[in-house]
Design brief:
Blueprint (H helix, E strand, L loop, with lengths): L25 H4 L11 E5 L5 E8 L2 E11 L6 E4 L1 H4 L8 H9 L5 E2 L4 E2 L5 E6 L2 E6 L5 E3 L8 E5 L5 E6 L2 E6 L6 E2 L8 E3 L4 H5 L7 E3 L5 E8 L5 E8 L2 E8 L9 E8 L5 E4 L7 E8 L6 E7 L4 E8 L4 E9 L11 E2 L5 E5 L6 E5 L5 E4 L7 E8 L4 E6 L8 E6 L12 E2 L6 E6 L5 E7 L2 E8 L5 E6 L10 H4 L6 E6 L5 E7 L10 E6 L19 H5 L3 E5 L9 H4 L9 H14 L4 E11 L1 H10 L8 E5 L10 H8 L6 H6 L14 E6 L8 H12 L5 E5 L13 H17 L2
Parallel strand pairs: 3-5, 39-40, 39-41, 41-42, 42-43, 43-44
Antiparallel strand pairs: 1-2, 2-3, 3-4, 6-7, 7-8, 8-9, 10-11, 11-12, 12-13, 14-16, 15-16, 16-19, 17-18, 19-20, 21-22, 22-23, 23-24, 25-26, 26-27, 27-28, 29-30, 30-31, 31-32, 33-34, 34-35, 35-36, 37-38, 38-40
Length: 742
């Protein structure tokens, strides 16, 4: 997925603190301790409900995580497992694990994931390619595996009898109390893999696993992924010590995808049944779920053109299924994790068929029972279900797209709120997320423009039970020395050409003087699945721009998320048009501001933001004097199937659309010496070829430009602890020369 740039603008409200203001340097932004303070990640409630576990970075190495816990009854949080005690962190991870972490945007080391067994007896901890088991009763940590290959996607089986994992492209299980491992599959090698999620499933579909335990632990469903038909795109992985060629299977738009089959294996007999996914192999296995009683296997099958999504109920004993629900859309259908099978056989399902994403209750047959949420606002995610009270807990931006709260709503009777309306469980003013337990209690994380991320345990009614990480911005907090002068973001709306409301945010320089004129930089992402303007805690990675005397501007154009289906689908088959027009509306607005130097506007972005930067810099009569484009897709035919075809269709079906969005066809409008191009030289997402073809075209046209390449870095170079500082300082140096004449 073309993810939002890690260079998104950073700011928060100024605090009325007496502390002496300090300049926030680029070096401090990337130093320890982390400026945003200690944050809890991967929060989970133990099965017995007695404690909360979470991941937290070390105080002196925020990028290295340990496993922590807090007792619900009270007391100080404590560290369960010190990652340094188990691993030095020096182990070189396999290409498969590196790629998996890149797909999941995991840049941390140490403990990056863990899982409880359903009985609450054990915690499984994968660490640097091997597996460890924490026995809750005595706190003893034992090592389960020590092999040359990496054990990836490790899980504890539902009843706690086994640990499962994939190694060297095959699926294994191992008794959790000891004993030899057992291979459930054989033959995984080269282009054939078992129990894994293929490239586009991980990168674009948010499906990171390829196997699913039956809740009774009596069987397991797993994928067989055949990539032999997928094009090999040789990728020169250029690092500081030389180059290696990776023969990457990369399914480009219009080209063959991996063929994915699904099987169910009975644990007692070893018998394997193939699930009948249909005669058409050119489909996407979008989601796989078991019913609560384990007697039905649900599959979401998405058509290659992504305009049809079917929910199919299978008998795992025969592999025969029946389609119980079908969604269609003239543009595309977005995938999500809102499908929830209930114990009574019915299920919850979300859909945008009303024009906004809302929650629906269906009978086991697929028949609609009721629409659960309604209104001119989109539900974000179904966070959990309390089946005892028959309520669904979800996140949404009901009052404004700039804020998000946690709500509950009844799918039975009586209704949760007045007249059946959703009942807010959390306060307004900022941005909430939640991890919900089966009884409705939840670990909630909140932030706003003056509050760094805080995490606490909440009762089902929304009352706070205890802090997990209060992370209060006060004396002693890493951010405290800079809090007094943090500027107040200014929010507003503009109108797009068709009248749609566009939300924007402006940040003024530190020490702002209304009598002066300042150069301005538009920080852009601009692509689908992203929202850059909201009232949550802002990253601090661009405050150095404010220290350096720049105005920073952000705008969420049409195509961005958390809006109506119409708003999101406005760029259908025409990437690089309507969203560019919206950003130009924002730039023209900037030029009208009395304190903005209208002749010195810059733009920067990474990934889709890099693409947007190129399109904005090459727009006729562009208002931008300089642009920094990071890892830009320069031709959508070079990007992957699921993402590109969702919005553009196949290249042979939309030749004009692909041609209009090719940056090379617009280079005649690029001013000499106005572009900085950046790219990681080991990028396996937006392949480096995207930049090399741009480089060649600029050289052919004799157009001078600047370039910075990052050996060994993949797509997430701005977030790298080793390269992020250089990325930031390179941007500052470029804009200082281009917009300030330094």
């Amino acid at each position: 997925m073309i993810r939002p740039s890690l260079l998104a603008i950073t700011a928060a409200l100024a605090l009325s603190s007496p502390v002496l203001a300090q300049n926030l340097t680029p070096e401090r932004v990337f130093a320890d301790p982390a400026l945003s303070g200690p944050t809890a990640k991967g929060v989970a409630l133990s099965p017995d409900g007695k404690r909360v576990t979470y991941l937290k970075g070390k105080a002196d190495a925020a990028n290295v995580q340990d496993l922590w816990a807090a007792d619900v009854a009270g007391g100080e949080p404590y560290r369960l497992i010190d990652s340094a005690a188990l691993s030095s962190g020096a182990k070189a991870l396999s290409e498969a694990e590196l790629a998996r972490r890149e797909r999941a945007r995991v840049s941390a080391r140490g403990i990056v994931e863990y899982s409880w067994d359903s009985q609450g007896r054990f915690i499984l901890v994968p660490l640097d390619g091997d597996l460890y088991l924490d026995s809750v009763a005595n706190g003893k940590v034992s090592r389960l595996t020590e092999t040359p290959g990496d054990e990836v996607d490790a899980k504890v089986s539902p009843k706690g009898g086994f640990v499962s994992y994939v190694r060297d492209q095959n699926l294994y299980i191992k008794p959790i109390t000891g004993g030899a491992e057992k291979a459930l599959t054989a033959g995984g090698k080269d282009a054939l893999s078992f129990g894994v999620a293929e490239f586009v499933a991980q990168e674009e579909m948010d499906r990171f696993t390829g196997y699913w335990w039956n809740p009774n632990e009596t069987s397991i469903a797993y994928t067989r992924v055949d990539e032999s038909g997928v094009d090999i795109v040789p990728r020169a992985d250029i690092g500081p010590g030389g180059a290696t060629v990776v023969e990457q299977r990369y399914p480009r738009a219009g080209r063959p995808n991996a063929v994915v089959d699904l099987f169910v294996q009975d644990m007692a007999s070893g018998k394997t049944i193939q699930i009948d996914l249909g005669s058409n192999k050119d489909i996407y296995l979008a989601r796989v779920d078991w019913s609560a009683d384990g007697k039905t296997l649900y599959v979401q099958r998405q058509a290659r053109d992504q305009k049809t999504l079917e929910l199919i109920a299978y008998d795992p004993a025969t592999g025969v299924g029946k389609t119980i629900l079908t969604e269609t859309d003239a543009h595309w259908l977005e995938l999500n994790d809102d499908f929830k099978p209930l114990k009574d056989g019915s299920f919850l399902w979300s859909s945008e068929k009303s024009g906004y994403k809302h929650l629906y209750h269906h009978a086991a047959t697929g028949k609609l029972i009721a629409q659960i949420t309604k209104g001119d606002w989109p539900m974000a995610d179904l966070e959990g279900v309390d089946e005892t009270r028959k309520v669904a807990i979800f996140s949404a931006s009901i009052e404004t797209p700039l804020e998000r709260r946690i709500y509950e709503v009844s799918y039975g009777k009586p209704a949760s709120g007045k007249n059946g309306a959703p009942k807010a469980l959390t306060s307004a003013g900022g941005w909430w997320s939640a991890k919900v337990a089966p009884n409705g209690a939840f670990a909630g994380s909140y932030s706003d423009i003056k509050t760094p991320p805080q995490t606490a345990l909440y009762a089902p009614d929304g009352q706070r039970v205890r802090w997990i990480e209060e992370n209060r911005l006060a004396e002693g907090h890493p951010y405290w020395p800079y809090a007094a002068t943090l500027p107040v973001p200014e929010y507003g709306v503009l109108k797009a050409a068709d009248g749609e409301v566009l939300h924007y945010e402006i940040l003024k320089p530190i020490g702002f003087d209304p009598a002066k004129k300042y150069p301005a930089i538009v920080s852009v992402y601009g692509g689908p699945h992203a929202q850059t303007v909201n009232k949550g805690w802002q990253s601090v990675r661009e405050r150095p721009y404010l220290e350096d005397g720049y105005v920073i501007f952000k705008l969420d154009n049409r195509g961005s998320t958390n809006r109506s289906a119409k708003f999101k689908r406005a760029l259908d088959r025409r990437m690089g048009t309507v969203e560019v027009d919206d950003q130009l509306v924002g730039a023209k607005f900037l030029q009208t501001l009395a304190y903005v130097d209208a002749g010195n506007l810059g733009v920067m972005g990474w990934s889709y933001g890099g693409f947007m930067t190129l399109m904005l810099m090459t727009a006729p009569d562009t208002p931008f004097k300089a642009g920094a484009a990071g890892a830009p897709p320069t031709a959508w035919g070079l990007y992957d199937t699921h993402y590109t075809e969702q919005f553009m269709g196949k290249p042979d079906e939309n030749k004009d659309g692909y041609a209009r969005s090719d940056a090379l066809n617009r280079l005649k409008n690029l001013k000499p010496n106005s572009l900085l191009l950046l790219h990681g030289m080991a990028d396996d997402n937006v392949i480096f070829e995207n930049s090399t073809r741009l480089i060649a075209a600029l050289q052919k046209n004799a157009t001078p430009f600047e370039m910075m390449l990052y050996p060994g870095e993949r797509h997430s170079a701005p977030g790298s602890r080793t390269k992020g500082l250089h990325v930031l300082k390179t941007h500052l140096d470029f804009f200082d020369r281009q917009l300030k004449g330094r």
